[in-house]
């Protein structure tokens, strides 16, 4: 049977032979996005899993032009590549960045904010595995409440991370960016459509894609796509776009599946108590009240 999503993108591979763990959600996001953007994409990867697994001398696991940036400098290097190639007369290329959640919400946010301010013609993709995975699973600004990481341990008195996940999507939207979107590798067709759309828009584009990490999340390697779907179905993540000053949902679960079931199948949340789970479901419900009020649904 024909698969519409598979048929809408290239059969060529631009990211392969890499050393990511089996079931890595980040590698799925990079692979799919590059299939959309094609051979003339120039990709920038800061320190993080995708640069660590993609650039293993003497192998380069990208078949498009790609470069590692400083950890904080994804967006500024994208700016330079875009300006440099344009100055040399190139027209048919896309400068695209793939940064982790730490490289985006913590250390890269200043350069990203600057690029949006200048409205540089770039696509910035944050693959969000909800921790600093490459250096051993430390909490980032995008680690959700309750998650156990090596810097937010779980024990008798503390139940993992005590802070909520930073709202990067609305932070970039607050800049008045031409296009921003949330996505999940569990809804790969939606992600691909958003990358396709971003590639047609002039100015700065930001896509925030949830990309589970079996190693850090404590799931088995064949659960990545399912769990990336479940986070959306349980209402703990949402698929949306921001464009022309408006927020729009691109997928609306008819009714939420169990947030508890989503949490309890992951090692990083296994310690959570009923009270912790209530904090999470209450904040989900508050978020959805906000979405119903402020998004086109
Ligand atoms: C300035 C600087 N600080 C720290 C590091 C060490 N470092 C390399 S990768 C990494 C973690 C990256 O985490 P994230 O951006 O979330 O991506 P992931 O590893 O999860 O893919 C860190 C802390 C570095 N390379 N440069
Ligand atoms: S540690 Fe996680 S994010 Fe890093 S390569 Fe492995 S699965 Fe992917």
Write the SSE topology.
Elements: H1 4-8, H2 25-37, E1 41-45, H3 49-54, E2 55-56, E3 59-60, E4 65-68, H4 74-87, E5 94-100, H5 101-106, H6 109-118, E6 123-128, H7 168-173, E7 179-184, H8 188-200, E8 205-210, H9 214-217, H10 224-233, E9 239-243, E10 246-251, H11 259-264, H12 274-294, E11 295-296
Parallel strand pairs: 1-4, 1-5, 5-6, 6-8, 7-8, 10-11
Antiparallel strand pairs: 2-3, 7-9, 9-10
Helix pairs in contact: 2-8, 4-6
The structure holds thiamine diphosphate and iron/sulfur cluster (SF4).
Iron/sulfur cluster (SF4) binds at residues 20-21, 24, 26, 49, 53, 129, 133-134, 213-216.
Quick structural summary:
With 297 residues, this protein is α/β, with parallel strands linked by helices.
Primary descriptors:
single chain; 297 residues; alpha/beta; nine-stranded mixed sheet; two-stranded antiparallel sheet; 12 helices; 11 strands; 38% helix; 17% strand; globular; binds thiamine diphosphate; binds iron/sulfur cluster
Distance linking N and C termini = 32 Å
Question: How confident is the prediction overall: mean pLDDT?
Answer: 97
Total strands:
11
Name the hetero compounds present: thiamine diphosphate, iron/sulfur cluster
Taking Cα atoms only, what radius of gyration do you get, to the nearest Å? 18 Å
SS strand fraction: 15-25%
Reading the helices and strands in chain order gives: HHEHEEEHEHHEHEHEHHEEHHE
Biggest sheet descriptor: 9 strands, mixed
Helix tally equals 12
DSSP helix fraction: 25-40%
Give unreliable regions as ranges: none
Tell me the overall shape: globular
Strand order of the largest sheet: 4-1-5-6-8-7-9-10-11
Q: Structural class of the secondary structure composition?
A: alpha/beta
Oligomer: single chain
